[in-house]
């Protein structure tokens, strides 16, 4: 693969595509990927366009570019496996849902982890009208060089892990832990992606495993409830009580791995007779 942060773990004929969040890196999905691989899945962690580089690299891309990265990785993976599952964290969850809506024949199941349609968690000081206006600000050139610097707890409840991640994030090594802040223009693209995926949720017919931290500091549980209400496919929910937003690396990551592997395995098992009959 083209970037050292991307990963591929070879396994069986059921594949999982993992998608990181805005300003994040595939590293935040690696532990989950290893766990799913141990459960027998072939796993790919994609790097979204513009990520794992500089702020300028990110600002040179749009949400359509980020989604194009997902679709290209999914197309490559589906050529090597019988079934494709897709799972994402935060903005990555929205991209996973969009793939399932746009390419229903490609996606057998979706993992929706910490879905972020709105940044409305308890640690976020700006919500509602202001975030809604970011696309307008971008069109008008307002705040072009402005950045929302992330604040503690950085989506991580485990204090020791939080210290490690924040040190890497502010060290300037964006490949390890992503950028330390969200540029306004990138957030404007995120708002536009959110609007697009909201409209498409009824087109998601694949089974969805929706996992969210009950005390999410970045995106409230209302985001998960939106998915559960709007998608057309069957839903299984998991609320985690000892994690914050970054549930793929926080205290309950092992539970998330086990439940995700179980969900995808059951979907694959139930799909086999129908695929064989077809």
From TrEMBL:
One matching Pfam family: Hydrolase_4
Taxonomic superkingdom: Bacteria
Keywords: Hydrolase
Hydrolase listed as a keyword: yes
One Gene Ontology molecular-function label: carboxylic ester hydrolase activity
Protein name per Swiss-Prot or TrEMBL: Alpha/beta hydrolase
Organism in which the protein naturally occurs: Luteibacter rhizovicinus DSM 16549
């Amino acid at each position: 693969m083209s970037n050292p942060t991307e990963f591929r773990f070879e396994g069986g004929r059921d594949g999982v595509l993992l998608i990181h969040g805005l300003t994040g890196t595939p590293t935040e999905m690696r532990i989950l990927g290893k766990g799913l691989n141990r459960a027998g899945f072939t796993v790919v962690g994609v790097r979204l366009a513009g990520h794992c580089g500089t702020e300028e690299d990110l600002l040179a891309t749009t949400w359509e570019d980020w989604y194009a990265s997902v679709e290209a990785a999914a197309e490559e993976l589906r050529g090597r496996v019988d079934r494709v599952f897709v799972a994402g964290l935060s903005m990555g969850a929205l991209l996973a849902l969009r793939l399932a809506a746009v390419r229903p024949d490609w996606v057998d199941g979706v993992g929706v982890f910490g879905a972020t349609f709105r940044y409305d968690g308890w640690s976020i000081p700006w919500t509602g009208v202001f975030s809604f206006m970011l696309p307008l600000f971008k069109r008008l050139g307002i705040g072009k060089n402005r950045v929302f610097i992330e604040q503690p707890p950085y989506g991580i409840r485990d204090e020791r892990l939080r210290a490690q991640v924040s040190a890497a994030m502010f060290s300037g090594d964006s490949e390890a832990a992503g950028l330390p802040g969200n540029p306004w223009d990138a957030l404007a693209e995120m708002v536009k992606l959110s609007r697009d995926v909201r409209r498409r949720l009824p087109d998601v017919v694949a089974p969805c495993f929706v996992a969210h931290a009950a005390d999410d500091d970045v995106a409230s549980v209302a985001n998960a409830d939106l998915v559960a209400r709007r998608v057309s496919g069957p839903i299984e929910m998991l609320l985690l009580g000892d994690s914050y937003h970054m549930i793929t690396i926080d205290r309950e990551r092992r539970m998330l791995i086990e439940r995700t592997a179980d969900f995808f395995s059951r979907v694959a098992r139930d799909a086999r007779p129908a695929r064989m009959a077809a």
